[in-house]
Amino acid sequence: MNELTTIIAQTTGYKNSRQMAANYVMEHPELMNTFMRICFEIDNEDHYKACWALELVAYEKLEWLQPYVPLICSKSKLLTNESAIRPVAKVLFLLLEAHYKTGNSSIQFTDVQRQEMIALHFDWLITDCKVAAKVYAMRCLYLLGLEYQWIHPELQTILIKDFSTHSAGYKAVSKHILKKLK
Questions:
Q1: Which domain of life is it from (predicted)?
Q2: Backbone conformation region of residue 55, classed left if phi is above 0, alpha if psi is from -120 to 50, else beta
Q3: Whole-prediction pTM value?
Q4: Element (H or E) spanning 142, and its range?
Q5: CA end-to-end span of the chain
Q6: Largest CB tally within 10 Å, which of 53, 65, 67, 86?
Q7: Average pLDDT over residues 94-120
């Protein structure tokens, strides 16, 4: 086991622990390929811990993820561990937000990658995922709907239909998105 895999294996859910793993990756950018591979290596029992660190890397070094957008877009749909899905959903939101809201030209997506994200986020929204992933899916679909006009009516239909069956957190974000869609 190399140092990166050891650090990931020892990472806990505590913020300081996750931040230490993220800091290690940011201090060793040459490890990004290995780190990203671990994040989406679903047979690796610690892949979700790498995803925790990925979220924190994205907050500080979002542009580092541009070369990995193809991997993130194509492999996110394979994730089944809720502890991996939530941080990856957040990373996808940060990437889309940078692309659509801030006009950050360093974050780009191909049409195929956008289509993969649309399918992924609708899947997360309508399947039995935890609320955090659903909330990020709503937000991502709203942003993608700025470019693909058919998304907003579909999103609106789902949010209205599912509104009464979800938690307060889901309802709050859903209400916010529905207001924007009017």
A1: Bacteria
A2: alpha
A3: 0.95
A4: helix 131-145
A5: 53
A6: 53
A7: 91
